[in-house]
């Protein structure tokens, strides 16, 4: 029987959750400004999302960077697809592209 790696666990989480944010802290108590910004944007759009606090587990914190080949946190995943970090999410939100993207993926947007 093969051993499940942290990358397998991350992939399972990403694939089984419509909107998943790997962040520092929690949506109720973000531990960095970038994570806070992405949470605020998702909340503005009325998006239901789950989060993973990378500060709770160094393996997850390092693993998510390897999984996405993206060096920073937060990281937003929608329907299994890596969308980006804070700057990308903010730019997409400001242009209206984020709401369109989410709707196109079948994620309910209420704002």
Descriptive key words:
Glutaredoxin, 4 strands, single chain, alpha+beta, 111 residues, four-stranded mixed beta sheet
Describe this structure in words.
The structure is a single chain. This protein has 111 residues and is an alpha+beta fold. Helix content is 47%, strand content 15%. It contains 5 helices and 4 strands; from the N terminus they run αβαβαββαα. The chain has helices spanning 6-16, 33-44, 58-68, 86-95, 97-104, and strands at 19-23, 50-53, 75-78, 81-84. It has a 4-stranded mixed beta sheet, with helices on both faces. Helix 2 runs parallel beside helix 4 (86-95). The protein is globular. The protein starts with 5 loop residues before the first helix and ends in a 7-residue tail after the last helix. The mean pLDDT is 95.
Put the structure in a nutshell.
The protein has helices spanning 6-16, 33-44, 58-68, 86-95, 97-104, and strands at residues 19-23, 50-53, 75-78, 81-84. With 111 residues, the chain is an alpha+beta fold.
């Amino acid at each position: 029987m093969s051993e499940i790696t942290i990358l397998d666990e991350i992939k399972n989480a990403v694939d089984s959750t419509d909107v998943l944010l790997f962040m520092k802290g929690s949506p109720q108590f973000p531990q960095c400004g970038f994570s806070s910004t992405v949470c605020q944007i998702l909340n503005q759009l009325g998006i239901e999302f789950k989060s993973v606090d990378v500060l709770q587990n160094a393996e997850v914190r390092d693993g998510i960077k390897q999984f996405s080949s993206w060096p920073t946190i937060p990281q937003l995943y929608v329907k299994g697809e890596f969308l980006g970090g804070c700057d990308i999410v903010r730019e997409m939100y400001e242009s209206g592209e984020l709401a369109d993207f989410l709707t196109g993926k079948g994620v309910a947007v209420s704002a």
